[in-house]
Amino acid sequence: MHKLVVLYSKPAGPDHFRDYYVSNHLPLVKNWPGPLAWRYSFDVAALEGEAPYFAVFEADFADAAAMDAALASPHGQRLAADVANYATGGVVIIHYPVQDGTG
């Protein structure tokens, strides 16, 4: 499995971010071909101090090639372009292969 993680820094307008994300961006995600599963949260917390991120999104893909194809698709490009409509604090996007932790 391969995971895509989007870390959102605190936006200029947190209420706008939440409203737009839920009402406009997530409906696009729901129709995105490629992810096996996805999830998000606005309740990002740090074990100590203040969390450096406001929200997080993660998606699971079969492998890196499946993720690359989903991101390069017209729908993936539309999702990427939509981020500017709500993420005024910026984003950090990471991805990685997931290793099984069972022994």
Automatic annotation (TrEMBL):
<dbReference type="GO" id="GO:0016491">
    <property type="term" value="F:oxidoreductase activity"/>
</dbReference>
<dbReference type="InterPro" id="IPR009799">
    <property type="entry name" value="EthD_dom"/>
</dbReference>
<feature type="domain" description="EthD">
    <location>
        <begin position="13"/>
        <end position="88"/>
    </location>
</feature>
<dbReference type="InterPro" id="IPR011008">
    <property type="entry name" value="Dimeric_a/b-barrel"/>
</dbReference>
<dbReference type="Pfam" id="PF07110">
    <property type="entry name" value="EthD"/>
</dbReference>
<protein>
    <submittedName>
        <fullName>EthD family reductase</fullName>
    </submittedName>
</protein>
